[in-house]
Design goal:
This protein has 123 residues and is mainly alpha-helical. The chain has six helices and three strands; from the N terminus they run αβααββααα. 63% of the residues lie in helices and 11% in strands.
Length: 123
């Protein structure tokens, strides 16, 4: 599933809320808030892509995600690794560690995560 930046922003709001009516979504948007017609169009596109669904309460729709946030971003990162790093997670990790200006504390945290992964994969 490929979402535009605007669709991802809206999905993040829905993931954060869990379930939300249009008015809740509009209130959550940061300034400058988009027009309600823009949000309605984005919601329709997300439905067509299978990212969200809704339950009808009278004339109001309560939207909820059909796609897990971690699953979506994991697939997105894996596509990026394949397309930009010759399908090499190590090349991606090297780029990430060097180019994102991580401070010592963040590098230590990353090191700890890697060490824990190594321990959990030992036979």
């Amino acid at each position: 599933m490929n979402l535009s930046n605007a669709e991802e922003q809206l999905m993040n709001l829905i993931w954060e809320k869990g379930r939300a009516f249009m008015k809740d979504i509009l209130e959550t948007y940061p300034e400058p808030k988009p027009a309600s017609t823009t949000v309605a169009t984005l919601l329709k596109r997300l439905q067509e892509k299978g990212a969200i669904a809704f339950e009808l309460y009278g004339n109001s729709r309560e939207y909820f995600p059909l796609v897990d946030k971690n699953d979506y971003f994991s697939k997105k990162v894996n596509v990026m690794i394949k397309d930009f790093f010759n399908d090499s997670p190590a090349a991606f990790a090297s780029f990430f560690a060097k180019e994102t200006a991580l401070d010592n504390q963040e590098l230590e945290a990353l090191k700890k995560i890697i060490e824990e992964q190594l321990k959990s994969q030992k036979p």
